[in-house]
Structure formats: C-alpha cells, structure tokens
Amino acid sequence: MQQPKEIVEAAMKLSPEQREEIINDLWASLDGSLGNEWEEEIQRRVQDVDAGHVKTIPAEEVFSRLEHRFRVR
To answer: pTM of the full predicted structure?
Structure first.
C-alpha cells in the first residue's frame, strides 16, 4: 500500500477537476465531520458574532483589502 505522501504526489499530477473529485470523495467518507475541536471552535465563533463580541467586516471590504494587498506586492 502506498504511503500518504506518495498518494498526494500522484494526485498532484491530476487535473484540478480530478483532484476536486478526490477531495469530495474523501470528504464524503468522513461523513462531513470536521472533528470535535473544529466544531467547538465554529460554535464559539458563531456565539461571539451573535453576542456582538466581534466586529464583522463586509465582504466587499475584505475583497478590496485583498486585491490591494496582492496588487501592491
């Protein structure tokens, strides 16, 4: 059986569409679970937003900042 690193190296030679199909198949095999730690972190962040403890940034502003950041470099 191949080692995970060998599998990844072989997968990187595939087209983006083929890699996406593999990703989707692997994700489905995990029942869509992120694991307890990630689920708890997501829940904590949602609660922080709902409670007003964090300042949200509109998507347009985020994308504008990213465009500027990567255009300048």
So the answer is: 0.45
